[in-house]
């Protein structure tokens, strides 16, 4: 079946609102901002503070979050206070919500979210403890509410991932952006958003660190079923919700004639649904072969694959610059990869354009795609077919395996004579990639396979810029990473990187501030601790301070580590770490150089200022 036939498939699901099995109860913005404690659905409903949301009323915002304790989502009002402060900061102080660094650098032309879009209509917030039955639970109503989550997400103009760094009520664990991404329910909600018509979402890491996510990055290419669930049976509850979202998105892409998006989602399903007892969703009629044409199982798989993807042959390329072999590598089906190789598909053919949906750059080979998604058997078939594991690329196979935290993939590539320190085209090694994505298992494999002490120079900077977790900080310190290193040089490594960083600095000076521009603006002579605090990676920052990170060092702008959190609410454990054993911390700015006056976001200083937490 060709691409024209693909475009004519109707969506039998209809609109999302008609599929709600339980009303979309929300709280108005004014009610949310006056709260001093998080109360259950039934309590708010009895007081008349819940509103059944309709599109004609305004705009809905879906709030995804982790529960701080087993029986209550936020007993000490820590997360909700951050949400209130973040909303006040956005609506009162900002013109736009900036892009996160991955979206800004990987998606040319991506735009930040103008705050006027939040102000344009009344806001209503969906939050599970408010919006779903909690007390004296009517199980039928609760299951219906759970089954309607994908519809709630689809009907929400905004999706807020509320994941500040907070300590749970027992003091036994720290909740962060990374633990939010690890939770199965949060993964499901995030997946529903990315499968909705709107796709983009807002991450709230602190009251001042708020970013717009257009794409998630390799670190967020996660399988919902492999997330953490308190109750294992919850996987059976979320499976139909996720499948319905996938099916609706496939039909939406066909309706829009977005065949590239359709092919990406169609073949990404084995990863998205990994860990769930369900095959991928197919929306086209079954492939019918000519009775006179006899095909073995392998060639039949290829014929079916070409049919459902709208390709005429194995050498085709679509307008995104991807061939059938690239989409087969994305799916990871060994039988399919073997059949394409038998049909003389080129195992070293690279993509001609970047895939923003998958955060894979131009010139990505099929082997790298397999490594990014942990498709081990398919990767081995490509290696046996002489796929080059060392060809220069931005997304080299070794970079992808390290970023995916896949020790088995790393080991297979090293057996294929890859070099641990081979740089990709952005001059990033596998060690630095593993550090950036918090890939502790991959880093351990690199250490085990290294014939000498692992070179971790600048890896701690990369880790605190991106992942920022305590685990990766501890691992790199165990590997003798330089705790107070001020020689970070990534911004100067290649001509392309120098140009990118120079343009970002210029935009920053002209008032176009983003997370990436702030990283570049402050990079020279910055320490890993400065990067951790700049990114609101407070758990990693505490590890560095406990290990002896110096608080008196200054970057080229004259900022100390404490300057990056001045005027912000931070967790008690970090407050204590920054204060040390002495009296309450007072920071002397001295010769500190604040950002240009028109860029001051509350972090500039003049003389002595008290740092409050």
From TrEMBL:
Originating species: Symbiodinium microadriaticum (Dinoflagellate)
InterPro entries xref list: Ankyrin_rpt, Ankyrin_rpt-contain_sf
Name of the protein described by the UniProt record: Ankyrin repeat domain-containing protein 17
ANK repeat spans: 320-352, 524-556
Record PROSITE patterns: ANK_REP_REGION (PS50297), ANK_REPEAT (PS50088)
Pfam family, one: Ank
GO cellular component: cytoplasm
Keyword annotations from UniProtKB, A to Z: ANK repeat, Repeat
UniProt xrefs under SMART domains: ANK
């Amino acid at each position: 079946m060709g691409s024209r036939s693909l475009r004519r498939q109707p969506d039998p699901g209809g609109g999302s609102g008609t599929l709600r099995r339980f009303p979309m109860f929300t709280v108005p913005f004014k009610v949310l901002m006056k709260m001093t404690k998080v109360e259950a659905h039934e309590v708010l409903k009895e007081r008349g503070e819940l509103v059944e949301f309709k599109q004609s009323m305004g705009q809905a915002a879906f709030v995804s979050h982790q529960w701080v304790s087993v029986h209550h989502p936020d007993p000490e009002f820590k997360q909700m206070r951050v949400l209130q402060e973040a909303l006040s900061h956005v609506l009162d102080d900002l013109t736009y919500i900036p892009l996160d660094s991955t979206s800004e650098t990987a998606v040319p032309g991506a735009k930040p979210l103008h705050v006027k879009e939040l102000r344009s209509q009344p806001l209503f917030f969906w939050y599970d403890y408010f919006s779903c039955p909690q007390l004296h639970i009517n199980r039928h109503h609760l299951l219906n509410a759970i089954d309607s989550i994908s519809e709630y997400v689809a009907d929400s103009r905004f999706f807020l991932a509320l994941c500040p760094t907070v300590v749970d009520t027992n003091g036994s664990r720290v909740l962060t952006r990374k633990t939010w991404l690890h939770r199965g329910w949060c993964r499901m909600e995030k997946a529903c958003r990315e499968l909705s018509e709107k796709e983009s979402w807002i991450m709230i890491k602190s009251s001042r660190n708020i970013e717009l996510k257009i794409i998630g990055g390799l670190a967020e290419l996660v399988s919902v079923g492999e997330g953490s669930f308190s109750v294992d049976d919850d996987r059976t509850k979320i499976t139909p919700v996720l499948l319905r979202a996938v099916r609706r998105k496939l039909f939406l892409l066909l309706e829009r004639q977005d065949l590239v998006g359709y092919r990406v989602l169609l073949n990404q399903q084995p990863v998205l649904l990994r860990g769930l007892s369900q095959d991928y969703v197919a929306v086209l009629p079954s492939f019918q072969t000519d009775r006179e044409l006899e095909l073995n199982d392998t060639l039949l798989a290829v014929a079916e694959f070409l049919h459902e993807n709208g390709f005429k042959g194995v050498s085709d390329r679509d307008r995104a610059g991807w061939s059938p072999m690239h989409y087969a590598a994305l799916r990871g089906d060994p039988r399919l990869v073997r059949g394409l190789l038998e049909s003389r598909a080129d195992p070293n053919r690279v993509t001609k354009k970047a895939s923003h949906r998958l955060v894979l750059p131009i010139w990505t080979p099929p082997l790298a795609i397999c490594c990014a998604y942990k498709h081990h058997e398919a990767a081995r078939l490509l290696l046996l077919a002489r796929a080059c594991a060392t060809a220069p690329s931005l997304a080299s196979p070794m970079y992808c395996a390290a970023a995916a935290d896949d020790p088995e993939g790393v080991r297979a590539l090293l057996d294929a004579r890859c070099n641990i320190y081979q740089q990709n085209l952005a001059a990033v090694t596998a060690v630095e990639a593993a550090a950036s994505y918090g890939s502790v298992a991959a880093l351990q494999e690199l250490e085990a396979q290294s014939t000498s002490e692992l070179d971790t120079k600048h890896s701690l900077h990369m880790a605190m810029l991106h992942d920022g977790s305590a685990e990766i900080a501890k691992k790199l310190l165990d590997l003798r990473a330089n705790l107070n290193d001020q020689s970070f040089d990534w911004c100067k490594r290649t001509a392309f990187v120098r140009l990118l960083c120079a343009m970002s600095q210029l935009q920053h000076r002209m008032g176009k501030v983003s997370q990436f521009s702030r990283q570049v603006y402050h990079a020279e002579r910055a320490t890993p601790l400065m990067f951790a605090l700049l990114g609101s990676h407070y758990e990693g920052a505490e590890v560095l301070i406990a290990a002896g990170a110096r608080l008196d060092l200054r970057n080229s702008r004259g900022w100390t580590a404490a300057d990056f959190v001045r005027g912000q609410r931070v967790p008690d454990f970090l407050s204590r770490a920054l204060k040390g054993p002495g009296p309450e911390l007072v920071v002397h700015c001295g010769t500190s150089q604040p950002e240009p006056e028109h860029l001051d976001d509350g972090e500039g200083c003049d003389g002595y200022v008290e740092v409050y937490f």
